[in-house]
Each structure stands twice: as C-alpha cells, then as structure tokens.
Amino acid sequence: MYLSTSEGNILQKRKLGRTGLEVSVIGFGGTWISELSMEDAKKVVRRAFELGINYIDTAKLDGDSEEKIGAALEDVRDECVIATKTGSRTDWDAYSDIKCSLKRLKTDRLDIIQLHGIDDEKTLGKALSLGGALEACKRARSEGLVDFIGITGHKPHVLVKAIKTNEFDLVLVPINIVTRQALEELVPLAKSMNIGVVAMKPLSAKTSNLITCLYTPSLSLLSDEPDLRELLGPDKATMVKTALRFILAQDVSSVVVGFRSTLEVEISVEVGENYMGLTSYEKERFNVKLDGYCRDCGLCLPCPQSLNIPAILRFYTLYRAYNLRNWAKKLYGGLEVKADRCVRCGECEPRCPYQLPIMEMLAEANVDLA
User: Fold this and answer.
1) Which of 101, 143, 154, 219 makes the best surface tag, with the fewest CB within 10 Å?
2) pTM reported for the whole predicted model
3) pLDDT at residue number 213
C-alpha cells in the first residue's frame, strides 16, 4: 500500500530507460542503514516502501545493508526494483558476488546488477575483457538470475566509453548542484541510447581526494557553511529539498538518497510528490556558467610538484562559478600543497583532453583562494 506524506500526493515514477521499469523518482540508497540495528533499519526501509519508494539501490560493499533490505522487503519483493552491485572485476568473483547477493536479499532474481566503481579505463577494460565481470553479469542474466545490467562510477568520461559499448541498460553517476560533469556529455548520450540514468550522491560534494558530505552521514546537517545555506536554504529540510529538486530537473529516472531515519525518508519523498519542475526563481538561481572548467578527470596527474590539480581547480570553480567563496577558500586551505608551488613546467596541459590553460588557472586560483 502506497501512502503519502501529504494527503492526495503520490511519489512520482519515471521510466528507467530501455528496461521499461517504472521507478520512483526518489530512490533508496542502502549505504547508511548498515550503521543501524536490524529492527531500526527495517523500519526505515519499510517506511520508504510505504511512501512509494520502489527503487532500492545497495551493494555488497555497503556493510550488511543487503541483509536488512532483504528482511524488510521479503513479503513485497515483487513490488520493488532492486539494484545491487559487484565490485569484483573477474568472471568467477563477480558471479560469486551475484549468488551471495541473492541470498542476502532473500530473492531468486535481481532486477539490476551493476559493475561497481568503474573509475578509470584500465578497470573498465578489465571488467569488459574475456573473463571479466561483465561476462558473469551476462551469464547470470541468461540464467534468469538478473534482468538488467548497469554500471556505476564517479568519472563521467569513463562511463561515456562504457555505455558506448551498448552493454549496459543503466548508469549510476554522481549528480548534484555542484557536481554537474555528467550533465555535459554522459546524460545526453545515455538519453539518446535510451539508457537509464540514476543519480547518486545528491547531498555530497567532492573536496580533495575524499567525498565530504554536506550532510553527515546522510541528511544530518554538516553545512553550517553560510555559503551553502545561501545556495540551498536556511534549514536542513529546505537544503535537502532544494538539492533534490535540482537533480529531478535533469534527465534522470531516479535519485538515490542514503537514509538513516524515517524522517529523512519523509523529507525527501515530499520533493518527488507531484514534482512539476523548477520555478523561474530556481532556474535563475541554479544557472551557472561552467565554460572552461575542470571536469575532474584527473588525466593531468601526476604533477612533479605534487599538486592536486583537480582539487585546486574544483575549489576554483566553486569560487568563480558558484560564488561559494568562503567555502572554497576553506577547502583550499586544507590542501597541503598550494597552487603557488606550480613552476609552470607544462607537463599537465598536453594531458588535458579539454585543452584547459591549467597553468593560468592555477595562478588565478592562487590569487583568489590564498
């Protein structure tokens, strides 16, 4: 039975590309329920289901979230779309992962199995090669253990190469108000190929080499940063809703949110009830010119001076494009090696596939962020 947080409102669904599956625009990310007791986790998962969330995304690497999701949804399994992942790169290991996930999720089939964390071309090549993980996924599909195959990663340029093989039915990628690289090429390409797009990490932003959540660990507010409050809203609930509304305005089927409480579920579900697109004010507020910005591919590295070039240019973009100036300076201040270490050796620029004037950008970042 699907209930609603607001009388008369129903959580919307969208078609997941060529799979034909109808999935809730707000999906359930299983990462954080591994920190809850079995009973508390079941309550959170069940509340999500009651409010219309039918897209459930988890992974073998997400602690015991598969077991908790399986226990919570066993009696309504066929009313859900369950997607899990294998982080293995070889046929035998990936097939073993799939069999184990089936047991933990208490089901005889997976709606979706995804190759997990494909973040560079070498890893992609290994997964797609003879004896690679993709073979296991296709074998499981032929045996009726899996319906569809997806791929996940944090580097859109790698995922573009992956979906061009036409082996994948959906792609899971970070998209949020300050992480828009996937919107440039990956999402339009996926749409043209009728490949489903699911957004992850809606409430987190990459800082240096780590992912720093705006909400820790899921929707719990970390961002007392005035800049972020000005961008997203004055309070926790408003910030969450603003961040999710931006993503739902893109060509995505669902956005998966990591939940730890029923309140977090209810706040997020409200966004997907009768969602009618962005307001004129929001469109103007979210309009950011990103010409000539770093796509965070990392191909400019390594730097002989040990500069984390993508991180510096990420903060430079936050400062210049998003006007998150104080936050950008704070993040930049946490780097051990600053942009003034650049000796203009020129090794980075020929490696940049976007032909960015990296040395000039580093010099400007040093002035703006110091």
Assistant:
1) 143
2) 0.92
3) 40
